Automatic annotation (TrEMBL):
It holds the Pfam family APH. GO terms for molecular function: kinase activity. The keyword Lyase does not apply. Residues 38-201 form the Aminoglycoside phosphotransferase domain. This is Ser/Thr protein kinase RdoA (MazF antagonist). Keywords: Kinase, Transferase. It comes from Nonomuraea dietziae. PANTHER family: AMINOGLYCOSIDE PHOSPHOTRANSFERASE DOMAIN-CONTAINING PROTEIN-RELATED, AMINOGLYCOSIDE PHOSPHOTRANSFERASE-RELATED-RELATED. The lineage of its organism: Bacteria, Bacillati, Actinomycetota, Actinomycetes, Streptosporangiales. SUPFAM superfamilies: Protein kinase-like (PK-like) (SSF56112).
Length: 245
């Protein structure tokens, strides 16, 4: 009998692995709707949908291994990072999904609220929050919407050698800023930004990517704390914020 592996679990959703099948259980079926539709639209490899019986979505496992993990050195080759950048460009050049993402005003409001909470709760020093809030301002500018993955973490990209075998976890896909995807991909792995940009194949504003590193990390800390994760682990979000100092 195959063992059941708990990949991730918190009060919003859980992912289990049984052999070569991933079972995703989500309390919010609109996220699953987005995931299934986005995977069908994406021009890059995605997991095969085996079946769906709400609240469970069954997906086939992708071959290969993750590009890396936040807080750990990536053993993937520069060519694999570049291939990931090329896949991101292919996605961003695809037709837009029909649903919008967060507006600039929504993101700015969220950022203000999270920064206030981080300071008043004492989770982070005020000077660290203030400095990163200033850095994050560069991301809060108009952009041309593209088809974004929305959560393009390195754990969501699978490779075999130098080739991309697929991208998972599409529930945050939407119209959005291309540089947000590139920033999410390289968060905590600044040393691979050059490889990703080379694969992406066009000039990008590196200051905006760095701004998204600060913004994403500021927005993530409370969620991580409240869901049982540690954003202060070496190489993770708090270290990213400190590196901006």
């Amino acid at each position: 009998m195959e063992e059941v592996e708990v990949v991730v679990a918190h009060h919003e959703r859980a992912t289990l692995r049984v052999g070569d099948v991933f079972l995703k259980i989500d309390a919010d079926q609109t996220r699953t709707d987005v995931e299934v539709e986005a995977m069908a639209m994406a021009p890059i490899p995605t997991p095969e949908v085996l079946w769906r019986k709400p609240p469970v979505l069954a997906l086939a496992a992708l071959p290969g291994t993750a590009l890396g993990r936040l807080g750990e050195p990536s053993t993937a080759s520069p060519a694999a990072w570049a291939a990931t950048g090329a896949a991101a460009r292919m996605l961003h050049d695809a037709p837009l999904p029909p649903w919008p993402g967060r507006s600039l005003d929504e993101i700015a409001s969220l950022l203000d609220g999270e920064c206030e909470w981080l300071v008043t709760s004492g989770v982070l020093p005020a000077d660290l929050v203030t400095r990163n809030r200033r850095v994050a301002e560069a991301a809060l500018r108009p952009w041309t919407p593209v088809f974004t993955h929305g959560d393009l973490q390195i754990t969501h990209v699978f490779i075999d050698g130098d080739e991309i075998t697929g991208v998972i976890d599409w529930s945050e896909a939407s119209q959005g800023d291309a540089l947000y995807d590139l920033a999410t991909l390289t968060l905590g792995h600044e040393e691979h930004l050059g490889d990703v940009v080379a694969g992406y194949g066009t000039d990008v504003d590196l200051d905006v990517i760095r701004a998204w590193w600060s913004l994403r990390s500021l927005l993530a800390v409370r969620w991580l704390v409240e869901h049982g994760f540690d954003p202060s682990s070496p190489g993770c979000e708090v270290d990213v914020l400190r590196s901006r100092m």
